[in-house]
Write a structure and sequence with these properties.
Elements (H helix, E strand, L loop, with lengths): L1 H20 L2 E6 L7 E5 L6 H11 L6 E5 L2 E3 L15 E6 L1
Parallel strand pairs: 1-5
Antiparallel strand pairs: 1-2, 3-4, 3-5
Length: about 100
């Protein structure tokens, strides 16, 4: 019985590390851009990295940027996994 428990926990760990290595793509819309930005992110990475990319593109302070998804503000400390993102989601970028 002990061996089965260990194998089960190993399989769970393996599956978990697999999902972390997969990238999902999100689309970011900004009124200042003609085309949306497509960004690939790990499900466990925070949206802070996306804010940094957007701030470089806009040449502004990342603290002035906010993301919205379906009308709700997303914290840069959140992850796609926290938001149950599967890929293909569209985020609105707001500049304060």
């Amino acid at each position: 019985v002990r061996i089965v428990d260990d194998i089960g926990s190993y399989a769970h760990t393996s599956k978990s590390s697999q999902s972390q290595s997969q990238l999902i793509e999100v689309k970011v819309q900004c009124p200042k851009w003609k085309k949306p930005l497509l960004y690939q992110i790990k499900p466990t990475d925070t949206f802070h990295a996306l804010a940094m990319v957007c701030s470089e593109k806009l040449k502004c302070d990342p603290k002035k940027l906010r993301f919205k998804f379906d009308g709700d503000v997303i914290s840069t400390a959140d992850t796609p996994e926290d938001m149950d993102f599967e890929g293909g989601e569209v985020l609105d970028l707001l500049i304060d």
